[in-house]
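DATA SHEET
Item: assembly model
Revision: 1
Owner: S.N.
Input lines:
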Amino acid sequence: MGVVLNLEQGKREPATIQALLDMTAADMGRVNKLILSKAGSDVEMIPEVANHLISSGGKRLRPMLTLAAAQMFGYSGENHVKLATSVEFMHTATLLHDDVVDESDLRRGKKTARTIWGNQASVLVGDFLLGQAFRMMVEVGSLEALDILSAAASIIAEGEVMQLAAAKNLDTTEDEHFAVIKAKTAALFSAAAEVGPVIANASKNDRAALRSYGTNLGLAFQLIDDALDYGGSSKDLGKNTGDDFREGKVTLPVILAYRRGTSDERAFWKSAIEDGNTDEAALERATGLMTRHGAIADTIGRASHFGEIARDALAPLAATPQKSALIEVIDFCIRRVV
Amino acid sequence: MGVVLNLEQGKREPATIQALLDMTAADMGRVNKLILSKAGSDVEMIPEVANHLISSGGKRLRPMLTLAAAQMFGYSGENHVKLATSVEFMHTATLLHDDVVDESDLRRGKKTARTIWGNQASVLVGDFLLGQAFRMMVEVGSLEALDILSAAASIIAEGEVMQLAAAKNLDTTEDEHFAVIKAKTAALFSAAAEVGPVIANASKNDRAALRSYGTNLGLAFQLIDDALDYGGSSKDLGKNTGDDFREGKVTLPVILAYRRGTSDERAFWKSAIEDGNTDEAALERATGLMTRHGAIADTIGRASHFGEIARDALAPLAATPQKSALIEVIDFCIRRVV
């Protein structure tokens, strides 16, 4: 896949999110402190489980979006730090519950909480973090921000149930799949970006721009994640190539390869995804079929499409360092596949 | 146990919550409609799972507390209906997650959602209902009510983790146990009762009275529930006598019998609770030991103690039909043990 993308992107420098990291560094220091403090509890198991995941080296992209989006509209105060922390807690709660639902043993190359403390602790500590997220939002006191984030919480869960209901269904259409990832992934990116302008009292148009940016960035992010599972380096990703395949997940590369395949190939996909025949040889064949049918390249192409929409969502906004940084995030999300 | 309590209570009429049922009937009609509408989703599995539990015949005591507490202070509007529905959704979400954590097969005499749709659906639909609960609270727009209910959400999860951490620990003290049930059960009763006066703009004192009433009613309710498991009729309770025992739960009757027992008896409790030797003969011995040591009677005694505090919390309030109805609820909770 790297090759495909390099051809498309010519000789551009490798994308980074350095500008975003720099401009949010001070605020992220406060977010990280708040994370530790709000994941605290006299009930020992809670900080143990929470910190295991929190310290496991996620990029914390979502809270940085909230911080940069608030800065972009001149917000001064402390509420963006609280909302950014809420966003990260919502994300962490989702991961804890996801690992239970997917029966995952590894996340970002580390044992999942559920393999160390059990499914029970993962469910309950997830609930606790979600409760803490809401408490922080309430402290902020913006009903608009609460509205956006509580709606996202419902939609994320709805997306997860959709995914569960469609599990192992190879006949899932691309549109149905987009509906799932829009709910389970893009909704939180969207909310994270929108609450920035909301607490900065920015205009309706500015809010809509950031919301649309977040939605489309989230879609691109998820699609690239799905592509990486069939070819990314496990070192960068913290997950092993083929994890989705072994878990029988119907992601876009699978959907495209299946729909474009011969009847023999479709029988292979059914045996792999539905019946769990997913050894190394099967993974090799799967990747081969994806390459033959351009399934990875086109997944990246779809991601680029959403990336373009995210970019255009920001186009009418005044040129600011924050705007440039957020655009760089789009490039980063898409080009990390190289 | 019935005998013990009859002696205490003399010849009083059997307690009912008829007054509460009557005064909240019209509002509960609206709550029930809102429950159906807000448990709805285009994702088919969500209303299926949600309605399975919602229609399984719980008493809906918590939302009735919210409604009566709002009426008590002359509230007129629709927000009490939304908050009552939020409270019931929080409760339902907790039950869905609890059944996963406890690996329960039956609830109120019916198969649990997790045995029909799996743990995954139960976790995710619980998350969805919690999200919907928050959305309704946000619609109400009272930051004070949001503060109370979001704090309760965190505290409930904290209580559940405490319970998990103390699971099968027979050395749990009574105080530690009270801390658990205060968090996992009483916090929601307390929040349900307090948000009534909050949206009715009642005084600080009135709010505090209802909060204290709710907390202590919740403690009494949980203790009686635990006593019933060792002697209630399964028809009334919708759960079978001995469920807690077979699940190795360290409830107050167990704590008291264990602490008061001989070393032989303590060995028996360890074998039952820690090692899972909980056949019919063991249950019979357990019940026998509880009777010998007055563990059930004293659990009911502790419940009565909290019931008295709940009653006194309401004492300074003007005599209203709502006040009488709420006091009747205390009697009902305690006397359902008969």
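QC remark: The interface with chain A takes residues 41, 43-46, 97, 100-101, 119-121, 123-125, 127-128, 130-132, 134-135, 137-138, 141, 143, 146-147, 150-151, 153-158, 160-162, 164-165 of chain B (CB under 8 Å).
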